[in-house]
Specification:
Number of domains: 2
Radius of gyration: 21 Å
Oligomer: single chain
CATH architecture of the largest domain: Alpha-Beta Barrel
Distance between the termini: 37 Å
CATH topology of the largest domain: TIM Barrel
Shape: globular
């Protein structure tokens, strides 16, 4: 839904990386900002809706596996005393092998509603659950993708669907394992799924990109085919350098580290988004910056899976483009992602306010928020860069009567939001493309799906 010609007056709004007062916001007929005017008064604001609290732009969740919402909290027990990313993956597969299209729609609708009410207004769905329970393609190859699109439309969040190429189980493998049968795809099939979603469910809030699951899951020829088809047309996402074992395997097979290989063979550009990159060197990050690609950091999932800690000071110090994702959805809050991202750096470096110093900024919350805000457009492939003319008119209205914000000086509202409890109860309203988005009832269908999966 796009609201045309809406006029708002924000007493305080985040504009250009800082708080501004008395900001007139006017959305055009295309759902993008026509006017963003600070210090507005008098005749300029006549007829504008006065917003009840500070205004922040909506954010992009740049990495999501919606079906994994069904296992959040369900993988926190260890039977044999040894547990890592790979054992977690086996448990995740057990759920992936059972989820039907109707269940996926119910799970995704619950998730997307949670993300929206937390302040994410666009989600990039890294989608590889393509085939039927038996591993055979559905009559409509886009069956599962369309279930995701329906879920997003139902709750009112924007969706960038990323049909994901997944062809083999490892660098030396000829194909997929039996428990990966639902992921089987080809360059042609993932591109066609994206086209089908835009044709059948497209609109101002839905677009398609493409994803490559990882270097271990895609051979060089297929990677090049997808990358060439997408170049200059749509965003490309890839998991890379997430785990130490992945680096070891890549070195053994290719003689190069994952990011090193990608830079040398794939010609990544500003349309590329490298997810995780926890196992990266400063030289590799410099190469990513130089080609214009972005990094997608998923702090709570990387912590939950024991991936490691991304070199945030190295990336911010190089002026790198980045965004965040909630990935496996152990949390659905951007404030928790940003807080953990900063705190993980403090634990490693034994210092404070790492983001602020690395970005040469006074506020860590401001540095982190502005970074993910500016980087989200690259992940989504849409103009979602905040309260600025030409960007989509997505915003959140904060409730300063929420416990985390009570008595906080206006200039430190963002600091308190990120570092004093998160968004719980702090967001009073969410607008997408200028239109207020009401809450949608999704819990009954989600509960039914969970009981069917785990009951």
């Amino acid at each position: 839904m796009v609201a045309a010609g809406c006029r708002f007056l924000a007493p305080q709004a985040w504009v250009g990386g800082a708080w501004a007062r008395d900001v007139l916001l006017v959305a055009g007929g295309d759902g993008r900002w026509d006017t963003v005017q600070s210090g507005a008064s008098g005749a300029d604001v006549e007829g504008a809706q006065l917003l009840s609290g500070p205004v922040l732009p909506g954010l992009v969740n740049a990495h999501s596996h919606a079906f994994q919402r069904a296992i959040a909290g369900m993988t926190e027990r260890s039977a044999d005393g040894k547990d890592d990313f790979w054992s977690w993956r086996d448990r995740m597969y057990s759920a992936a092998l059972r989820i039907t299209p109707d269940q996926l729609e119910a799970i995704a609708a619950q998730l997307y509603g949670e993300l929206l009410q937390a302040g994410f207004t666009q989600v990039c769905e890294f989608h590889y659950l393509h085939n039927g329970l038996d591993g055979k393609p559905y009559a409509d190859a886009a069956e599962m993708a369309l279930a995701l699109a329906r879920a997003a439309s139902r709750v009112g969040i924007g969706l960038t669907l990323l049909p994901t190429l997944y062809m083999r189980s490892g660098f030396a493998a000829a194909g997929l394992r039996e428990d990966q049968r639902r992921f089987a795809s080809t360059p042609d099939s993932v591109l066609r799924i994206g086209e089908a979603v835009e044709r059948q469910a497209g609109g101002p809030l839905v677009r398609s990109g493409v994803a490559l699951h990882s270097l271990r899951a895609v051979d060089e020829a297929a990677l090049r085919e997808v990358a060439d088809a997408a170049r200059g047309k749509m965003p490309v996402h890839i998991h890379i350098a997430e785990q130490q074992q992945e680096v070891v395997d890549c070195l053994e097979r290719t003689g190069q580290r994952p990011i090193e290989w990608l830079l040398a063979h794939a010609r990544p550009d500003a349309g590329w988004n490298l997810v995780h990159a926890t196992q990266s060197t400063r030289d590799e990050l410099a190469g990513v910056r130089d080609c214009g690609a972005a990094i997608v950091i998923c702090p709570t999932t990387e912590a939950n899976l024991g991936d490691g800690v991304f070199d945030l000071p190295g990336w911010l110090g190089q002026g790198g483009n980045w965004s965040i994702g909630s990935d496996s959805h152990v949390t659905r809050s951007w404030t928790e992602e940003l807080r953990l991202l900063e705190y993980s750096q403090r634990l490693v470096l034994r210092q404070r306010n790492i983001a602020a110093r690395s970005a040469i900024c006074e506020s860590s919350a401001g540095a982190l928020f502005q970074g993910v805000l500016l980087g989200g457009s690259a992940g989504a492939g849409l103009p979602l860069g905040g309260l600025a003319v030409g960007q989509r008119a997505d915003f959140l209205v904060l409730d300063t009567q929420a416990p985390s914000l009570l008595g906080i000086p206006p200039e430190q509202v963002l600091d308190a939001l990120v570092f004093s409890g998160g968004t719980g109860g702090c967001i009073g309203a969410v607008h997408v493309a200028g239109a207020a988005v009401p809450r949608t009832e999704t819990a009954p269908a989600f509960t039914h799906a969970m009981r069917a999966l785990w009951g």
